[in-house]
Write a structure and sequence with these properties.
The protein is of the alpha+beta class and 212 residues long. The chain is 40% helix and 11% strand.
């Protein structure tokens, strides 16, 4: 395995959600490189219907951030806090994650750059995300490689119409996520996941993967 491959796997293994971001500005060149990484992703039929809205305007971020915080406070936070810890973690780590998510809800508008991935000309369907979320993952990995923190969030979709109006999206365009990007306050990775044996089957559902 080459050094480049090791670098890629290390980047993937340490690209965790970074929700505490500094308000320091990000150079345009770094934002451009992240966006270019998004366009390297596959899309159905290579139609490339993705569109990426870069948001820096403080007034827009304040307006959208208010809807985001409302979605977190009223809908998402109560559900998470009443449930069990996420798989592969423990109550203490899960509580820290929720604290970070609360911080993001309180300070989303302070993230210097948002990227909102959108698609033109199609109503959301079960397969529509296959032509946009690979681009999102590419951008998250690119941000990590450049030393920038980011996270994928869709909480704002609880107020989809209000937020998309604030973003000025046309009627035939839908947004699929919001990526706040900035220099992280904390350290990267590692990501914490359950063992492969708990999530992988072989040939038929329920058949465990053979040990190598």
């Amino acid at each position: 395995m080459t050094d480049d491959a090791f670098d890629l796997f290390d980047i993937m293994a340490t690209t965790r959600s970074m929700r505490r971001l500094k308000p320091d500005p990000i150079p345009d060149e770094l934002v451009r490189r992240i966006l270019e990484a998004g366009t390297y992703a596959p899309s159905g039929g290579n139609m490339q219907r993705w569109r990426f809205l870069v948001v820096r305007d403080p007034a827009i971020k304040q307006r959208v951030g208010a809807y985001y915080k409302r979605a977190w406070d009223e809908v998402v936070s109560p559900r998470y806090r009443a449930g069990e810890p996420a798989p592969g973690t423990n109550p203490e780590r899960f509580a820290r994650m929720l604290d970070a998510a609360q911080y993001l809800a309180d300070h989303l508008y302070e993230a210097p750059v948002w990227i909102v991935p959108c698609m033109e000309g199609a109503s959301p369907t079960r397969t529509a995300g296959s032509s946009i979320y690979p681009a999102v993952q590419n951008m998250l990995l690119a941000a990590r490689a450049l030393g920038l923190g980011a996270t994928l969030t869709t909480l704002y979709l609880n107020f989809e119409k209000e937020v998309e109006a604030a973003l000025g999206l046309p009627a035939d365009v839908r947004s699929y996520a919001l990526l706040p990007i900035g220099y992280p306050m904390g350290r990267f990775g590692p990501v914490r996941r359950v063992p492969l044996a708990e999530v992988v089957y072989e040939d038929q559902w329920g058949h465990p993967m053979k040990a190598s």
